[in-house]
Amino acid sequence: MTLESLLISKDASLLGVLRPTLEKLAVNVEVCSGSQTGGEMLRKRKFDAVIVDCDDMQGGVELLTSLRNSQSNATSVAFAVLNGNTTTQQAFQIGANFVLQKPLTPLNATRCFNAALNFMVRERRRYFRHPVETSVRISLPEGPELNATTTNLSEGGMAIRIADKLPKEAVAGLRFTLPGSHSALELRGKTAWVDGSGNAGIRFIEVPQTLQCQLEKWLADRLQDELPVQLQAHLKVQ
Length: 238
Fold this sequence. Notes:
Layout: E1 3-8, H1 12-24, E2 27-32, H2 35-44, E3 49-53, H3 60-67, E4 77-82, H4 88-93, E5 98-101, H5 106-127, E6 130-131, E7 135-139, E8 146-153, E9 157-162, E10 171-177, E11 184-194, E12 199-206, H6 209-226, H7 229-237
Parallel strand pairs: 1-2, 1-3, 3-4, 4-5
Antiparallel strand pairs: 6-8, 7-8, 7-10, 8-9, 9-12, 10-11, 11-12
């Protein structure tokens, strides 16, 4: 599993520095040459990092500003590339997490992305869904407990297979054990979707802090195992 980044720029020299830098970190780079096509890409897909050429591309500043209001990439790690028109302070004010200055050198790019790497992995973990099968006991306000099996698990919810009918938007108590763990997690969730074929999605709504930390740690360990070896090595050095 590689991290995914989107570079929105028409500057070939900028790409010439960024692509090898990111590839060394096992970060895939997709490129859009304009703000309009970049905006369309951001509406369609989720990226761990978004790199916007703010000063040398028409609409770059506006695109970075709108990023924080987008549905899919509002929390993506954002890099502003500047060339004298936009100040570093302004870039941070409109939503940048990191700033790169032109002319960009390989050394400066490497330093910046090494510093950003943990944030990018944390962003991936936030929406990471780990395929896993484990039993779940579902307690609805009325009726007997139901049995289900997870198909994947994330920090914010789970997908399940269930033979019984699960009401839409139902709030229920959930009890399950993480594989490799000896303690059961008890929390509350709400049905997010039901497809009528025995599959459903549940969004967690009440998770005690200790259980949230346990779930996040368990998922972080699974994500770590799926990252490329060279990316794991960079993370261990930091």
